[in-house]
Amino acid sequence: MKKKAFSILATVALATCIATGTADAATQSYTVKSGDTLWKIATTHKLTVDELKSLNKLTSDAIKVDQKLIVKANNGGTASTGGSSIVSNKNAATKPVTSSTSGWKKTTASIGKGESPSLSTEKIMLNAVELAHPLLDTPYAWAGVTPEGFDCSGFIYYVFTSAGLEMPRMDTLGLYGNSAYVDTPMPGDLVFFENTYRSGISHAGIYLGDGNFIHAGTKKVEIASVDSAYWKDKFTGYKRFNLLQ
Question: Is 215 known to be catalytic?
């Protein structure tokens, strides 16, 4: 009788261990650490921010230290990347970067590409310039997307989403791939540079006019000139977000 009871208990315990192990293998979690952002965590685990938020049913970008996030889908693989595409250009760094246009939305209806900016487009660009100035001297922070600290693409993401353009968080190559060159730049357009800390397109800022741009530099948010000794040889041109054409 004792042997039978022990056998039953052992069987239940083994079944529990197997079930637990299966669950751990199917769902992988990550514990948020100080300095983490959704973009940083998503990139590390080969997800987009939207996928990470969907896996965890998040309705905002806010996360907190010690929060546990699911970073692997229940089917044993990471979530599908949907309609993502790989940016490719002759000046780009060799490492592919995902830059999906899904998630982009202007607060008013967009107009046909190639036409003059509508009032709503001009307003978004003007808002971007006005919102960028008070952020001067904000310290640099790798992958930073808040007034606590920015990197160059995080600065652009924060400014334009605050200005009224819904857009996904992307790196410099993603911004480059979702914008088009303009012959006559306006304040609020993007400025791109190559061969700074890596080969190819590697840095971006927001054009202010008269050859000046505001950007998250290596130490802080600052204003510089495309004609300065450092930037003039790295300047590739002015671009405008595709949805603001």
Answer: yes
